[in-house]
Amino acid sequence: MEAQAQMPGLVRGEGLTAWRQIADALIADIATGLYTAGQQLPSEAALAARFAVNRHTVRRALAALAEGGLVRASQGRGTFVEAAPLAYPIGPRTRFSEIVAGAGREAWGDLLAAATVPAGAEQAEALALAPGAPVLELLTVHRADETPLSTALTWLPLPRFSGFSEAYAARGSITRAFAACGVDDYTRLSTRIRARPADAQEAERLDIAPGRVVMVVSSVNIDAAGVPIQANRTLFAADRVELVIGG
């Protein structure tokens, strides 16, 4: 049975705009559990009818909720209640699939692009390679259920990981792709974290508004012999995860 909201009584002419009253009513609906995490909100047309306003007013209210991280507008699909931020531990063994599965959600990674490129100065230093040495560059998006949590650029040394992109595309997991390439365990050598606004392409991949804050996590992983095997730059949607730094 669909959730039934109480019909509101918008107060007119007393200083509080209609869109703000609608936003507050929807916030209350979410807080009381009328609409739960992951649930789709009624359409703009349905909300406009509920509040007896035009769709532009509803759109402004939904934009305010999206700016506050309470909902996510997905192009062509509708508006969904955001889940509570996922605790994401950063430690010696950081595994996206295990972290997401541990929170009771389904993890998957999508491979968007793969190419052989010359290592830039940053990637060469991280992977202990000569500048310009060939590396495999992957562009990925990582999801918890249907929600994108992060997008990443990953660099791996060649020819050692020449089959990695195919393994990742088939398995949807960095850890499982490493195992398919003969690396059964790996650990985190270094992590750096900063924050900045998302550009338009990053926002599209993360299904957020351009300019929203992302946390940029740059990391290097090594194999059991201490050899660098992965340099990574991951962008997390800041309101969907809480990075937990541990030893």
CATH-scheme architecture of the largest domain: 3-Layer(aba) Sandwich
Order of helices and strands: HHHEEEHEHEEHHEHEEE
Q: Order of strands in the sheet with the most strands? A: 4-5-6-9-8-7
Radius of gyration (CA) equals 21 Å
Q: Tell me about the biggest sheet?
A: 6 strands, antiparallel
Strand-residue fraction? Answer: 25-35%
What CATH first level of the largest domain would be assigned?
Alpha Beta
Fraction of residues in helices? 25-40%
Low-confidence stretches: none
The end-to-end distance, rounded to whole angstroms, is 46 Å
- Tally of alpha and pi helices: 8
Tell me about this structure.
It is a single chain. With 247 residues, the protein is of the alpha+beta class. The protein has two domains: 64 residues, Arc Repressor Mutant, subunit A, CATH 1.10.10; 160 residues, 3-Layer(aba) Sandwich (Chorismate lyase). The protein contains eight helices and ten strands. The strands form three sheets. It has a six-stranded antiparallel β-sheet. Helix 1 crosses helix 3, helix 2 crosses helix 3 and helix 6 packs across helix 7. The protein is elongated, with a radius of gyration of 21 Å. The termini are far apart. The model has no long low-confidence stretch (mean pLDDT 91). This is GntR family transcriptional regulator, phosphonate transport system regulatory protein. GO terms for molecular function: DNA binding; DNA-binding transcription factor activity. Keywords: DNA-binding, Transcription, Transcription regulation.
